[in-house]
C-alpha cells in the first residue's frame, strides 16, 4: 500500500476518533435526562478505535495517535522514517473533525463551546487534579495502551481479536482517567480540541498532552518488547 493511501487512511481514522469520542463528550454526555455520561463517552472512544481497526487496519495499521505511532516504532513494529508523516496526517484528521464538531455544537441557539472536551490539569482538570497527577496519569495510561496494542497485535496472539482488545483497553483508560485530565493518551486528539476551546488555556497546557503520551507510548512498547523477546537473556 502506498504511503499516501496510508496517510489518508490515518487522517480518516483520526477524524472518526475525534468526531466520535469528543463528539460524544460535547454533544451527548450531559444531554438532559438521557445523557450518556462518563461511561458513554468512554465507550464512544473505544468504539471509534474498534470500528476503524476493522475498517483501515489492513491499510495503515490504524494508529490514529502519534503516541501509538512512535511507540510502535520504538517497539520495532514500524519504520521510524514514517513516524513524522503519520503524526502529521493524524493531527490534520483530528483538526478537521474538531472543526466539524465545532460547526455542529455552535448550531444550537445559545450554545456555548466552553472547554470543548479539551484536556487539562489544575483548574481545567474535571476533578481538580494538578500537574504531577496529570503527568503521571497520562504516561502510565499511554504506556499500558501501547503494552496492550503490542500484545494484541503480536503474531502469537489469537488472530482477529486485536481490535476488540485495543478498543476495550481505550474504554477502560477513559473510565479511569477522564476525571484527571479528560483523558488524552493521544496528542492529535488533544491538539484538535485545544484549537477550538474557549479562552486559550488549552493551548497553554497542550505541551503536557504531547510529552506525556509520547513518553508513555515508548515506555509501554519497550517493556512489551523486552518481555516478549524469546531470546533475551538466554545464554549462547
Summarize the helices and strands and which ones pair or pack:
Elements: H1 3-28, H2 37-60, H3 66-74, H4 83-105, H5 131-152, H6 162-181, H7 187-194, H8 201-205, H9 208-228
Helix pairs in contact: 1-2, 1-4, 1-7, 2-6, 3-4, 3-5, 3-9, 4-7, 5-6, 5-9, 7-9
Molecular structure report:
With 236 residues, the chain is mostly helical. Helix content is 67%, strand content 0%. It contains nine helices and no strands. The chain starts with a helix and ends in an 8-residue tail after the last helix. The model has no long low-confidence stretch (mean pLDDT 95).
Mean pLDDT: 95
Q: Helix share of residues? A: 55-70%
The major pleated sheet works out as: none
N-end to C-end Cα span: 39 Å
Sum up the structure in keywords:
single chain, 236 residues
Short description:
The chain has 236 residues and is mainly α.
